[in-house]
Design goal:
By secondary structure, this protein is an alpha/beta fold. Helix content is about 35%, strand content about 20%. The chain folds into two domains: about 170 residues, HUPs (Rossmann fold), CATH 3.40.50.620; about 90 residues, Pantoate-beta-alanine ligase, C-terminal domain (Pantoate--beta-alanine Ligase, Chain: A,domain 2, 2-Layer Sandwich). The termini are far apart. The structure holds pantoate.
Length: about 280
């Protein structure tokens, strides 16, 4: 497994593979890998000759009051997991590699970032779109895999790839969950034992909604109210949002009629946790 720390080395590695006629699968991450990331690597491995992982905690997707400095990191363990998952190259740049002192170009989308997480994290998706554009130009993959837990991020990357004519196939990997239903996330590492017990409220609230929809309830305000009451019955929780929306445009819906996305963000202690599911009326 090659470890590349500069943009020039990573680009030269990819260019060399392409000259040899090889294809590249790519999984971009911010490190602190867990089974969710490994599942994305497992998707990418059989699809191409090479499998590249990037580890970069991207500062431009955090606002000043967010957890950039506290973001968990364990590079030795990440490299070990990467090796075991069949990664052939790891791109491990530092901040100065990605954003020089004269850096001034950003990628913004008009509509998709206005919903869900974009409301409470206004700088987030501009930072994600910018760094993913840069990573795509550096790694030059044929296929890139993103987790469906960040449903809005995946929608934004798909839109960006279409709008900016990247010749890259985007694949969404299913949400990987702990046994009790909690979606795996690097941010779960911040949870105390008591908060960890409460963190199950997100997936359980989704199950509650699915159950009510199956019973015939269609009114989104009624469903959201019930989910909110349920979540707040757990200690250490504060609801950021619960939204039921169109799965492509992310526009809110009032009545569940067709396949719909339910997405939520809940602050549990210091961790802001997200989860989502697609639900249908039948
Ligand atoms: O999902 C993530 O870990 C990050 O948002 C990404 C896509 C690696 C960009 O920094």
């Amino acid at each position: 497994m090659d470890i590349l720390k500069t943009k020039a080395d990573m680009q030269a590695w990819s260019a060399d593979k392409k000259r040899q006629g090889k294809t590249i699968s790519f999984v971009p991450t911010m490190g602190y890998l867990h089974k969710g990331h490994v599942s994305l690597l497992d998707i990418g491995r059989p699809l191409s000759d090479e499998l590249v992982l990037s580890i970069f905690v991207n500062p431009t997707q955090f606002s000043p009051d967010e957890d950039l400095d506290a973001y968990p990191s364990n590079t030795a363990n990440d490299l070990d997991l990467a090796q075991k998952a069949g990664v052939t190259a790891v791109f491990l740049p530092d901040k100065s590699q990605m954003y020089g002192p004269d850096y001034q170009t950003h990628v913004f989308l008009d509509h998709l970032p206005q919903y869900l997480c974009g409301r409470s994290r206004p700088v987030h998706f501009g930072g994600v779109a910018t760094v993913v554009t840069k990573l795509f130009n550096i790694v030059m993959p044929d296929v890139a895999i993103f987790g469906k837990k960040d449903f809005q991020q995946l929608a934004i990357i798909r839109q960006m790839v279409k709008d900016l004519d990247f010749n890259i196939r985007i694949i969404g990997g299913e949400i990987i969950r702990e046994e009790d239903g909690l979606a795996m996330s690097s941010r779960n590492a911040y949870l105390t034992t008591a908060q960890r017990a409460s963190a199950v409220c997100l997936s359980r609230a989704i199950s509650l909604l699915k159950q009510r929809v199956a019973q015939g309830v269609r009114s989104v305000p009624d469903l959201v109210r019930e989910m909110e009451t349920f979540i707040l019955s757990f200690d250490h929780t504060r609801v950021d949002y619960i939204e039921v929306c169109h799965p492509r445009t992310l526009e809110p819906v009032e009545i569940i009629q067709a396949e719909t996305l339910v997405a939520l963000a809940v602050q549990v202690g210091k961790s802001r946790l997200i989860d989502n599911a697609l639900i249908g009326p039948s």
